[in-house]
C-alpha cells in the first residue's frame, strides 16, 4: 500500500505516512504506485519546509525552556506539534513545559501521546512514569518504568525510577534490589546514589518506628496495669492506714496520704481533707506525730486541689513508676 500524497510505501496499520506525515485514509491506502500521483518537486519542497519549520519551532522552544520562559516555550511547542503532529519528541517537550507551568493533567496527556506515537521509546515511558509518580499514581508509574526497563534493560535511571515507585508502594525489598541494579549499572550517577541513600534511610526509619511503636504499646499496657493496681490499693486505704503510712520515714504518695484513688474528683479530695483535718488537727492531737501528719495532709491537699500542680505530680508519679 502507498501514501496518496507522496507515493511512499506504508504499512497496513499506519495512520500517517512516515515520509511526509500525511494522514492515511482507507480509500487512499490502497492506491498503487501506478495510480497514485507523485508529489511534484514544489510539493516535496513544501513538505520539507513544514518539517524544517517544525524543527525550528521545537529548537526555539528548547531555548525558551532553558531560559525558563515557559509561556513562550509553550507557544513554540504548540506550533511544532501543529506542524508535525506525529512527532513524539515534540509532544514530550510540550508536556515538559506544561509540567513546569504546573498543568500536570495536560502534561500527562502530552506524555501519553508521545508513548502512543513511539511505544518503543524507553525515554518517553520514563517521562510518563515520573509524571504519574508526581501525581501519586505509583502503581501506574511502576507499569511505565517496567516498560522502560523492558525496552532499555541497561538504562540505570529506568531501574532507579522503578525502585522509587516500588518504595512508594511499600515494596521495600524489591525497591532495594532494583536500586542496587541501577547503582551497579551507573555507579557515578549522583542522583541514583541519592535515591539509594534515601531508600536506605527510609528503610531504617521504618524499622525504628516499628520498634518504637511496639515498645510504646508495651509501656502503655504496663502503665494501665500499674494504674489499676494503684487504684485498687488506694480504694482500700482507710483512716488507720493513713497513720501507718505517715510513721514511715520516706516521701509518701499524696493520694495515699489522703486515702483517695488517683482518679478522685475535687469534691472527693476536699471531703477527705476535711475529715482528716478534724481527726489529726493539733488542737485535738498534740503529739509530734499528729503535727507531722497534719503537715503532710495539708501538703498533699495543696498539691491535689490545684489542677496544674496535680497534673505535674501525676506526670512525676508515672515517670517514677
Question: What does it look like?
Answer:
The protein has 15 helices and no strands. By secondary structure, the chain is an all-alpha fold. Helix 6 packs antiparallel against helix 7 (138-151) and helix 8 runs antiparallel to helix 9 (172-185).
Task: Provide key terms for this protein.
321 residues, mainly alpha, Serine Threonine Protein Phosphatase 5, Tetratricopeptide repeat, 15 helices
Topology readout:
Elements: H1 26-29, H2 41-66, H3 70-83, H4 88-100, H5 104-117, H6 122-134, H7 138-151, H8 156-168, H9 172-185, H10 190-236, H11 239-247, H12 254-258, H13 266-280, H14 288-304, H15 307-320
- Taking the alpha carbons of the first and last residues, their distance comes to 88 Å
Query: What's the overall average pLDDT, rounded?
Result: 76
CATH superfamily of the largest domain: Tetratricopeptide repeat domain
Overall number of domains: 2
The CATH topology annotation of the largest domain reads as Serine Threonine Protein Phosphatase 5, Tetratricopeptide repeat
- Main sheet specs: none
Choose one word for the global shape: rod-shaped
Q: List the total number of helices.
A: 15
Which series of helices and strands comes N to C? Answer: HHHHHHHHHHHHHHH
SSE class:
mainly alpha
The number of distinct β-strands equals 0
Task: Provide the CATH top-level class of the largest domain.
Answer: Mainly Alpha
What is the gyration radius calculated from CA atoms?
40 Å
CATH architecture of the largest domain: Alpha Horseshoe
Unreliable parts: 26-36, 237-250
Proportion of beta-strand residues:
under 5%
What fraction, in percent, of the residue positions are helical? over 70%
